């Protein structure tokens, strides 16, 4: 067991040291499972923030052929597309697809409940993982570490935000890979040994396909094998490499063949997985904007290192004191360090503390707690490396969900500190302090989960943490606009642009509000400004919105050019094709309008407005059979759409097919019982069918919903007149 590595042996103290009280396994698992429900209050929340882009608007979750999931990124964009974030997590998307398949629709509660269950499983599974990493004598430390992990508030984003499922699944398979690796070490039969090793590598691959961080499990397994299993402390390795002769090294390598084979297997597997991962994305790194990660665009390398270091400080602070929690940390939330700044003092403290912790791992002591500390440090640092900007730039400043797995290492280090504290203060005092901490963390996770239930509460909570974050104001404005609060939306978009004058998305959305208010000239200026910004020259959405404004201004040729530009930047853009069809309709170019809407429905099978416009236009052109065929085709993709049933009923009614028309009118009413026009038109059908009592009933139902509906009042008057003449 690497005995030749040992340069010094310090015997364990003969004094009896106080220990954290052990908890029976069944009771431990019950406590951990219950505490992991600290985020359960958010089970009935909505889709919020990134959930909209990754799930609600992501066709991979609903209609895309399954094979396309393995060629698209996490957000549904082709991996080879220049705007792809290159986040490849197909197995996570498959679980979203599974949720959709079970219910047949997007129900946020279903997705959130699955996340809560996954978090509980990860927490429960973490206990045997730590028991493996720490050994039988570390059972109490493993329990207290896991309890802390279960309630840590920094996990709220990963659990309450549905997109955080990537972290949960990644952690789950990382834990499984560690357990399988441990089994491969101690398995007596060769078949079991290699079967479990293959299972370990497979779990790591699955973890990586849930989120890229999963590959870091290889590093944790390797350090566990060296430090815990083979008891090779860092100082032992350094001393051995410096002082041992070639013969001694060769002898040790011969003795440790099994270890070398395992490490080589891990290394080869990691190399293969990395090559496969990069080949999937075409060996092209993602490109980000300065607003996504400003520190990465600082040219001065010293200032860049200072800014990265400050971000590391904040990550550590969120683990220590998770009071400042925010859904987004970009756009002014963390101002750049560009000159002398008092924050440099905190950076120095951070590196001194971290350096001291690393230096302590080179202690000659054989105390088991040293090996535990090394494992805690490994679990903290290694999973964080993909988000550290060291190997490649990332598209965010700070993201709480990236701390989900690294926090396991922090919790282990804190539990080890608690164990040492028991040697200095009475155990009951240490346990009291720990209980208070767990209670505070549980309460904070609970309240934070409530904030994550709706976008309104989530975005407003960020104002207390990052009032200078333009993206916070942008999201508040977007949420207000969706709720119909135009005044607040205008104010918040303007505030976002005040904080970040180059915020093109805010310009685009503010332009949309002004467009809806008929302020076309102001909207046109904003759309053009958004397009002209050098880093948003291919802003397809702004090009489309500019086309809508130009069309409203009757500048049809310019409008068509804008739509063409939007489609050149985003070939799959059904909304743009729909608006292009509307432009052609205004120009009475009916063939082109139909073609544009047909293309829109090909790209998005459930594009209701495109289907409806095609049906109405074909009917207006007297192409009744084509209109009905199109309508029935639309029903294959939108079987519960009331307007399509309504349009079919109108066409059939005009053709005198009263019986079939009645069926579709009834279907439309059953799916949307509050639309007065549906009752009115069914009344007209009965009126023509000479079912006067039924017609009267429908007209009255329409007037109950909309008392001032003139068409229903006029038809009812005609009906009474007809009844009087009959009498």
Description of the structure:
The radius of gyration is 32 Å and the shape is elongated. It is built from 34 helices and no strands. 43% of the residues are buried. The chain has helices at 25-35, 50-56, 66-69, 90-103, 108-134, 139-151, 156-160, 165-186, 190-210, 217-229, 234-243, 246-255, 257-280, 301-320, 343-360, 368-381, 406-421, 427-451, 455-462, 470-482, 486-499, 504-516, 520-532, 540-552, 556-569, 574-586, 590-603, 608-620, 624-637, 642-654, 658-671, 676-689, 692-705, 710-726. The N and C termini lie far apart (109 Å). With 727 residues, it is mainly α. 67% of the residues lie in helices and 0% in strands.
Q: How many helices in DSSP terms? A: 34
**C-alpha end-to-end distance:** 109 Å
Helical percentage: 55-70%
Categorize the overall geometry.
elongated
Content of β-strand: under 5%
Secondary-structure-based class equals mainly alpha
* Radius of gyration over C-alpha positions, nearest whole angstrom: 32 Å
Number of strands: 0
What layout of secondary structure does this protein have?
Elements: H1 25-35, H2 50-56, H3 66-69, H4 90-103, H5 108-134, H6 139-151, H7 156-160, H8 165-186, H9 190-210, H10 217-229, H11 234-243, H12 246-255, H13 257-280, H14 301-320, H15 343-360, H16 368-381, H17 406-421, H18 427-451, H19 455-462, H20 470-482, H21 486-499, H22 504-516, H23 520-532, H24 540-552, H25 556-569, H26 574-586, H27 590-603, H28 608-620, H29 624-637, H30 642-654, H31 658-671, H32 676-689, H33 692-705, H34 710-726
Helix pairs in contact: 1-5, 1-6, 5-6, 5-8, 6-17, 8-9, 8-10, 10-13, 10-16, 14-15, 16-17, 19-20, 20-21, 21-22, 22-23, 22-24, 23-24, 24-25, 24-26, 25-26, 26-27, 27-28, 28-29, 28-30, 29-30, 30-31, 31-32, 32-33, 32-34, 33-34
